[in-house]
Write a structure and sequence with these properties.
heterodimer; A: 583 residues; alpha/beta; six-stranded mixed β-sheet; four-stranded antiparallel β-sheet; 11% strand; B: alpha/beta
Chain lengths: 583, 585
């Protein structure tokens, strides 16, 4: 175990060894197989050194034939090492990607989880978060990778020290000096190294975020001819990263160079100790060759121990950054074992679907939502009987969307107060319960994924009948028939190959496909024309749905059983249901 | 993988040379620093050899100690030099590649709208930043190491030649063979590397997309579906990585064999020379030490091989990205008359190249200074018409003219500065409120930014401070506010034609009514095309065109169409009113 110098860094105190071990345990077989192959590969130089010593000893004595035999043995050993490496490298890569994927799926799962206890705080910028998925996972894998190197180096070192000690115990003892020095240097500089890495990661996130959002806004930039200033801005963000990157890489090189310099120091010390014996004729050229060969390899273990200490600091920074994406920022959740087994039969993730609980009456009491310290929904009460349509109206910034998200439990729990009662029973975990088949949600600006229309609607397996009915309800049938591949038409990133109104209705179909007890719609009509909107509302009324919708246009109001007017997050007026449409 | 023509296999190396050329002085300086640090590395074994020989000759302990001390000193100096080299190399590597990143970002921004409809931002992040980082690593880490290895090797050959001509010649031959063998395979894993990198680009693109859609997926039971997609993409990464690793190993084997045979040759050759009495025992040891010394840089090169292949793969992908060309070319030279622009669609057809027409025979004329409302069902082609006017898309046949000039003949910069469009997609960027209004243009005074924000009713944002970062806690904008912010941008400009594509769709009618005055001001004296589903938005336009399934089925003055009991526009209006009356009843 390493004890780091005291530090007030955010990652201080993270059990990096334990977390990494728990992660590694998921792919333990691959780990040990790789380690065994590597260790054999690394330890072979003990044999190589012995053979070389024999060869030089033979040369010194003039036994040239024996030297040539040694050369043949060397060839055989080297070929065997090549075979070992082939095996080790391939299993290493399986291991390498598997452990990183495990970290990635844990972050992604918590970002997508429905249950409140499993939910990580949403990322500020998806493209900025790519640094966590790309660079931080790699830093943790590198830390564990260093263990493999240390284990391999250890085996070689033990063997080499035994051989050397039998030749010259004093010269061997001297070798401890560079090893200790390397450990001390890396230990002392650990904080500076971690600080540089942290700054570099933050700067990298800023770069990925800026690039992602600039290309995401390509259309607006083009239309406003803002290419030059936008690229200038990107250049500034990149320049910050250049500086952090240089600092980070140079510190890394200093750590590495320290190891190499110490190796040379070791060679010098050995020479000092041994040389007098050489002049006395006690130590032959063979023995010296042995020291020289082993020395190039003996530097490996202390250097790797040094790198392990450095990489532990990197891994600590990474675990801290990745923890921000998982529930409760609990670092243990980044290493949950989901039995992914990418290299054998990959797992098909499943999720817990709540049991359908038929809705008779939904009540909201005292709902309050704060956003950035500002109260955007203030003590709202609502009642939704089954089969009714409730419309929420209000001006921009009046809290309409926050009200819907607050009811569904999508706002951050710490910023949300109040209860939602389903048939009179208070819901403990709204995000877990208010998902299909109990509820479905159409956000104001729906986000689709690069896949087919059918996949975006079904989000999993669904019968053709369900799909057809949902598309029919969402008034998509005619347009789909006109598309080249019908349902199978691929819609491009974020659905950009569709028109704005089509995206909205694909998302509506997605909400309808499970025939949910409650449908929550945020401004369904913002991208559809009046006729389509009329048809949509008629279809929903016809299907007897219970609907809670933000809608500002008269078409929707005409079909509502009650209209809630919001202003400044409060209910200004509620037009009571005039003609309940019981079923 | 595919067999490419010999002249194209090295295209990525030549392109890399082009990237480096402007910095050649800095790279020359780097080479000098490298030479110094390599020379230091060479002195070490000479000292060891000398120590051995002097010890055998019975030199004094003090002399031997001095020699060993010199060895340590030189070792330390060599490492100090290598840190300096790294610092210098990293610095120039990152400034060089940052230029490349900016160039690529500019290139991507200049590509057609179509390109952006088929590539996720996450994937583009990986291509602009991730792939190029492989190049930064190449320049910062590989170039010094490989350069050092080359210089050290050359130095070794020189030193050995001085010691014994035959040994020098043998070493030269050995190095030449090793270089030839690895050089022949330098392009070996490039295709596999590029495949692996595209698998990763898809992986990160998918992650970014799922994070963006997190709320949609979560609240519609799509978590398992999304994670399933991630698993599939990860499996692709494993298989492409293993393919790449296999090709890499074939190169590695060649290099490893070269290193191992070097040591063996030293022993065998040394034995032979010693047997013939050509060299001293100490020289054999120096020879052996050198092959051992060669081991370190060569192993460094081996460590870096993967980076080299990654960088070649990255450069290949950079070239692919560069090869993407905008289909909309800026070849126009004619300026339309100044002032409000007349707009004309002359028998325009449009499809996305898939044989499914989006617009048919659209002919329409809008007089200078008049405003036109486009109405029609979703997907009927309204947005396509708007994009044709900005030349974001090119007509399949027929022509769009502004001020009587075909838009292909108008320089793009002039077209886009005289025609302003507020698109239906609201696009905000990482940055402050101010950055989002000005899109990073620094010359706009703060007062102007505040004034345009107040125009669209976003006084709240002005009060919060223009330098407040958007997206950070405290600056959460609703969808309506985001749209108003995007709309505000148009007031910074002085266009002759304004196209509003659902510019206020996410805003409630009451807020929209308050905006009406500002919009009237904007449209006064300008030609305007307004697309709106909400007919109240169109209450003050002069003309109306109804679009249905890609055809203009009705076109005329708004007041005339309103009064005509048989017009489509009139019936749409009445349908809306009836709905409203039902509420009031």
């Amino acid at each position: 175990m390493t004890v780091a110098p005291p530090s007030d860094a955010p990652e201080a105190g993270l059990p990096v060894w334990r977390l990494s071990w728990r992660l590694n345990r998921q792919e333990l077989r691959l780990f040990w197989f790789t380690t065994a192959a590597w260790t054999l590969f690394f330890s072979a130089p003990v044999l190589i050194g012995l053979v070389l010593a024999e060869a030089f000893g033979a040369l010194e004595d003039g036994r040239f034939g024996r030297a040539q035999l040694a050369a043949v043995i060397l060839i055989v050993v080297e070929i065997a090492r090549m075979g070992l490496l082939q095996v080790a490298a391939l299993s290493f890569h399986r291991w390498w990607i598997s452990v990183q994927s495990s970290l990635r799926i844990n972050m992604l799962s918590d970002q997508l989880a429905a249950r409140a206890v499993d939910r990580g705080r949403p990322v500020e910028s998806p493209s900025g978060a790519l640094a966590q998925f790309r660079d931080d996972t790699e830093d943790v894998a590198r830390f564990i990778d260093a263990w493999i190197d240390v284990l391999g180096g250890l085996c070689f070192t033990v063997g080499a020290v035994i051989v050397l000690a039998s030749v010259d115990p004093l010269a061997t003892g001297v070798l401890v000096v560079p090893m200790v020095l390397i450990a001390v240097v890396t230990w002392v500089s650990g904080n500076a190294v971690a600080r540089a890495r942290r700054a570099d990661r933050a700067a990298t996130s800023a770069v990925t975020r800026s690039v992602g959002e600039l290309v995401g806004a390509a259309l607006s930039i083009k239309l406003n001819q803002a290419e030059r200033p936008a690229l200038h801005h990107l250049g500034e963000v990149m320049d910050v990263r250049r500086r952090t990157a240089v600092r980070d890489r140079v510190l890394d090189q200093i750590m590495w160079s320290t190891g190499s310099a110490m190796t040379d120091l070791g060679l010098g010390l050995v020479l000092l100790v041994a040389v007098t014996r050489v002049s006395d004729g006690e130590l032959g050229l063979g023995e010296l060759a042995l020291f020289a060969t082993y020395l190039t390899w003996l530097g490996f273990l202390p250097r790797m121990i040094g790198m392990t200490i450095v990489r532990r600091r990197y891994a600590a920074v990474s675990f801290e950054r990745m923890s921000r994406l998982v529930a409760d920022e609990d670092s243990d959740r980044t290493v949950t074992d989901r039995a992914l087994s990418l290299h054998a039969t990959p797992l098909r993730p499943t999720e817990q679907v709540p049991e359908r609980t038929p809705l008779a009456h939904l009540a909201v009491r005292g709902l309050t939502v704060r956003l950035g310290g500002e109260t955007v929904v203030d003590d709202v009460d609502l009642d939704l009987p089954r089969g009714t349509i409730t419309v929420v109206d209000g001006m921009v910034g009046s809290g309409k969307t926050s009200l819907l998200r607050g009811i569904l439990g999508l706002t951050w729990p710490g910023d949300t107060d109040g209860v939602v009662l389903w048939n009179g029973e208070p819901l403990e975990d709204r995000t877990a319960f208010l998902v299909p088949p109990n509820a479905a949600y159409l956000p104001q600006v729906p986000n689709l994924v690069s896949d087919s229309v059918a996949a975006n609607v079904a989000l999993g397996d669904h019968g053709h009948g369900d799909l057809r009915a949902a598309m029919e309800l969402a008034q998509l049938t005619d347009e789909l028939a006109a598309m080249s591949d019908g349902w199978g038409t691929r819609i491009g990133p974020r659905g950009l190959r569709l028109s704005g109104g089509q995206r909205q209705r694909v998302a509506a179909a997605r909400a309808f496909v499970h025939r949910p007890e409650l449908v929550v719609l945020d401004d369904l009509s913002s991208a559809v024309d009046t006729r389509t909107e009329l048809a949509l509302w008629d279809a929903m009324v016809g299907a007897g749905m219970t609907v809670l919708a933000v809608a500002t246009r008269p078409v929707a109001h005409a079909r509502a059983d009650q209209v809630i007017q919001l202003s400044g997050g409060r209910v200004l007026s509620a037009v009571a249901p005039q003609r309940p449409r019981g079923r | 993988m595919g067999v490419s023509a010999p002249e194209s296999t090295d295209a990525h190396w030549r392109a890399l040379a082009d990237v480096l050329r402007p910095h050649r002085r800095q790279y020359v300086a780097l080479a000098v620093a490298l030479g110094a640090s390599s020379a230091l590395l060479l002195v070490g074994p000479l000292l060891v050899g000398r120590t051995v020989d002097r010890a055998a000759e019975g030199a004094s302990v003090a002399e031997l100690t001095a020699l060993a001390g010199a060895l340590v000193g030189i070792g330390v100096a060599a490492q100090v030099a290598s840190v300096i080299v790294t610092w210098w190399a990293t610095r120039i590597a990152w400034s060089t590649t940052n230029e490349l990143r900016i160039e690529l970002a500019g290139h991507v921004l200049g590509l057609d709208h179509e390109f952006h409809r088929t590539h996720t931002p996450g994937e583009l992040v990986q291509r602009i930043d991730g792939d190029v980082t492989a190049l930064s690593d190449l320049l910062a880490r590989v170039v010094p190491k490989v350069g050092g290895a080359v210089l050290t090797t050359m130095g070794m050959v020189v030193v050995l030649t001085v010691i014994d001509l035959r040994i020098g010649a043998a070493m030269l031959l050995y190095v030449a063979v090793a270089v030839w063998v690895t050089g022949r395979r330098r392009n070996r894993a490039v295709d596999e590397s590029a495949d692996e990198m595209s698998a990763y680009a898809r992986l990160y693109g998918g992650i970014e997309e799922r994070l963006t859609a997190a709320e949609d997926l979560r609240s519609n039971g799509g978590t398992a579906y999304a994670l399933g997609g991630f698993v599939d993409e990860s499996v692709d990464c494993v298989s492409t990585a293993l393919d790449r690793e296999r090709s890499y190993l074939s190169v590695w084997r060649a290099l490893h064999l070269a290193i191992a045979s070097g040591g063996i040759l030293a022993v065998v050759g040394g034995a032979w020379l010693l047997e013939n009495g050509a060299i001293a025992l100490g020289t054999v040891f120096v020879l052996f030490q050198y092959t051992q010394l060669l081991r370190r840089p060569l192993e460094d090169v081996m460590d870096q091989l993967q980076l080299i292949q990654k960088a070649s793969g990255g450069m290949r992908r950079v070239l692919d990205l560069r090869a993407e060309r905008p289909t909309i070319l800026d070849e126009g030279t004619t300026s339309p008359p100044s002032g409000a622009l007349e707009v004309e669609f002359d028998d325009v057809d449009f499809d996305y190249g898939d044989g499914l027409p989006v617009l048919h025979d659209v002919s329409l004329r809008l007089g200078a200074g008049r405003s036109l409302g486009l109405v029609g069902r979703t997907g009927s082609g309204k947005t396509t018409m708007a994009r044709l006017v900005l030349r974001l898309l090119e007509t399949s046949s027929g022509e769009v003219r502004v001020g009587g000039v075909g838009i292909g003949d108008v320089p793009l910069a002039e077209l886009r500065s005289r025609v302003a469009m507020v698109p239906q997609e609201v696009q905000l960027v990482a940055g402050s409120v101010r950055d989002n209004v000005t899109l990073f243009e620094l010359t706009v005074p703060d007062e102007t930014v505040a004034a345009v924000l107040r125009r669209v009713g976003l006084d709240r944002l002005v009060a919060g401070g223009l330098d407040r970062e958007l997206g950070a806690a405290g600056a959460g904008l609703s969808a309506g506010e985001s749209q108003l912010l995007a709309l505000a941008r148009v007031w910074l400009r002085e266009p002759d034609l304004v196209v509003l594509d659902e510019a206020t769709a996410r805003v409630d009618p009451a807020t929209e009514a308050r905006l009406a005055h500002a919009v009237d001001d904007l449209l006064r004296g300008r030609t305007a095309v307004v697309i709106a589903h909400r007919l109240s938005t169109l209450e003050r336009v002069d003309d109306i065109a109804v679009v249905d399934a890609g055809r203009v089925v009705e076109h005329g003055e708004r007041t005339v169409l309103e009064a005509d009991p048989t017009s489509r526009y009139g019936s749409l209006l009445r349908a809306g009113r009836q709905a409203q009356e039902k509420v009031l009843a």
